[in-house]
Amino acid sequence: MKPHKHPEHTDNIWLALEIGNSRLHWALFVGETLYSAWDTGHLPESVIQHLAECQTLNDLLEKIFPQGESLTDILPLCPLLVASVVPSQTAIWQTYPNTRVITLDQVSLKGVYPTLGIDRALALWGAGKTWGFPMLVIDAGTALTFTAADANECLVGGAILLGLGLQFATLGQQTGQLPLVEMQDFVSLPPRFPLNTTGAIQSGVVYTILAGIKDFIEAWLQLFPNGKIAMKGGDRTLLLNYLRTLYPKIAAPLIVEPNLIFLGMREIVMGDSTDEIK
User: Fold this and answer.
1) I need a surface site. Which of 4, 119, 138, 181 has the fewest CB within 10 A?
2) Mean pLDDT of 119-131
3) What tens digit of pLDDT does each residue of 198-252 get?
4) Active-site residue identified among 119, 185, 215, 235
């Protein structure tokens, strides 16, 4: 979604940035309302330092979303909240004025362990506070992750494995004779038992990932029959379509929302506002 018009209540605008392994994910909020969200590639340090020299929000948006339309009114720079899983990028973005880096201790989940990724914690917190706990979040991104919390908002745990793209890339790059398979080469479910190497790779990766997702969902619902499940990540649409074809009952209850991390960041901002009122 592109920023395109002047939002109302401009005194309460803030910008959110999720620094992922593959891309930068942006969101513009007006108070509690997610006004616009978009993605860019990672930016070189020189570009980020140049952004720190922007005088208005309009200037900044034009540079981080060059194809988007400008806001109609000139708006001052707003706070930037950053959640990052790339430490080198985190340090660079802290040169931008009025930046706040969200850390794990600011997420009110109970029972978290120190190395839990901030992206997983925020996505789970955002999903649970929006749709209710117990909540399982499936993030189909560079890594495929499962992260869950119970009705008391306490971390149950989760799992991490290579995502679709990484599995294909690993087979292509770390073996002597296997070809590199591009994900865009197929949009529908591949044959289960193909008679060629490329098809065999597609089958092996896709069907084992789908079986793994199915197994985790079934295990989750055994533990929490009334538990909810939300899905995000760049491969969410592809995997959801596959699941609907192969396991329609498993796919039916899935909540698909790409902006779960931003919803988690919003909860933190809302909590800060409540504390100020008190």
Assistant:
1) 4
2) 97
3) 889 899 999 999 999 999 999 999 999 999 999 999 999 999 999 999 999 999 9
4) 119
Judge whether 119 counts as a catalytic residue. Answer: yes
Instruction: Give me the count of residues in the chain.
Output: 278
247 and 214 Cβ atoms separated by less than 8 Å: yes
Is 100 annotated to bind ligand?
A: no
CA angle 60, 23, 269 (to 5 degrees): 60
Count of other CB atoms within 10 angstroms of residue 106:
19
Closest CA to 161 of 180, 182, 146: 146
Q: At a CB cut-off of 8 Å and minimum separation 6, what does 26 contact?
A: 15, 16, 17, 18, 37, 38, 39, 40, 64, 65
- Residues linked to residue 83 through DSSP beta bridges, in sequence order: 18
- Report which DSSP code applies to 255: E
Q: Is 95 within any annotated ligand binding site?
A: no
* Residue found under tokens 């790059």: 173
Ligand-binding annotation for 266, yes or no, is no
Q: What confidence score (pLDDT) does residue 66 get?
A: 61
Q: Vertex 43, ends 231 and 14: CA angle to 5°? A: 65
The span from the CA of 80 to the CA of 97, in Å, is 8
- Nearest CA to 140 among 227, 218, 243, 40? 243
Q: pTM above the 0.85 mark?
A: yes
